[in-house]
Design brief:
Elements: H1 4-29, H2 36-69, E1 82-86, E2 89-93, H3 100-121
Helix pairs in contact: 1-2, 2-3
Length: about 120
């Protein structure tokens, strides 16, 4: 049985994809008087910001998944020494699983770059 958070994350992801498609349609309809470079910048910014939100949802799901499935005691032998705290419930991750924070940082960079590109395109 899938976790409820997985279903919630998938539904939100589908909503974001639908909103992206609608936004693209709006940009495409307004494309008539717009230079091609501005059109491409608007589409790229839309894709960057949408992908950032989807990456963030994936990061959220992994965080909750790790919170449910990882041990609550540190184990030096297996490399589970990195703590992840979820409202006081602490679990321990390996160095590979700690890449979750890099994923969150990548989502932030994608969103900020998409936002700045959108502001530049006007």
């Amino acid at each position: 049985m899938p976790y409820p958070d997985l279903i919630f994350t998938l539904v939100l992801s589908l909503v974001v994809c639908w909103g992206t498609a609608l936004s693209y349609r709006k940009i495409r309809d307004e494309h008539d008087g717009m230079p091609i470079s501005m059109f491409r910048q608007k589409v790229l910014s839309l894709l960057l910001m949408s992908s950032a939100v989807l990456i963030w949802f994936g990061c959220f799901y992994l965080s909750v998944h790790y919170d449910w499935t990882r041990p609550t005691l540190a184990d030096d032998l297996s490399g589970r020494i990195y703590s992840l705290s979820n409202h006081g419930h602490v679990v321990y991750l390996t160095m590979t699983e700690r890449g979750l924070f890099a994923l969150a940082f990548a989502a932030l960079v994608c969103f900020v770059s998409g936002y700045l590109l959108h502001r530049r395109a006007g």
